[in-house]
């Protein structure tokens, strides 16, 4: 039986969260940090993509039926390495914060974690508590937003002409017809190759085909023109950009998931051209803004986004804490 740290008041109630709690949890997270609102659809999407048996637990703290805080442990979305787990707490009562963090850490260690990570904005008060508990900066991400209605496509006519001169054709995934398992595996290979090349503090873990299906395919369903591919003269897919998933808490806004080009095809402005093609399609679909987030070490992509007019927001800091010995073994992502 798990032992939880004592709550500071006997009137507080600790219980395990359920899917029925997601609306209240989304409201809590938004109230705690209005600068980063969370929609219930986002939490539902995350839950639906969780694999059977995947480490996860959420504990809620209530007082007379009012939700005051949460402590959660889950598999990180990108840093999905063996023994790494994401810990998170949120509360409207700062006095509860140390207890909730202790609880989240205990949950993670009960799941076999030896490395804890969490993500905070550089301006959040929680960052100091994490640092006091031994967390240090592992990586830094730059969130940014692009106003599509202000994007002057004519400024990039030269780069788009350069991309066309390479012989590469930019096409939406939907133009390739039926997206069967063979096509999915083909896209998964390209996706994995692009992710392996992203400059970051440590190499991103690679999703298995089945995990990739669970995380990516639901976002593609019914969203024509959201994912664009660069097709080389021989028919190989050599680049992609994903601009297909709406952000529920930000109407009219799409999340730019992944953009990249295979090394042998770089130098032809294909990354920029892919982003422009996806931006045109997004405008035609009625979207007005794009949000993305890039590793601070990914200077080439940051340069492309700066040129397009993305406006950087407060940095997202990925904090890390070692709590045990690392065991050898590969990721099953």
UniProtKB/TrEMBL annotation:
Q: Which UniProt keywords apply?
A: Acyltransferase, Transferase
GO function term, MF aspect, one: acyltransferase activity, transferring groups other than amino-acyl groups
Q: Which residues form the N-acetyltransferase domain?
A: 12-158, 188-325
Leader sequence range is none
Task: Specify the protein name.
Answer: Protein N-acetyltransferase, RimJ/RimL family
Q: Which organism was this protein described from? A: Deinococcus reticulitermitis
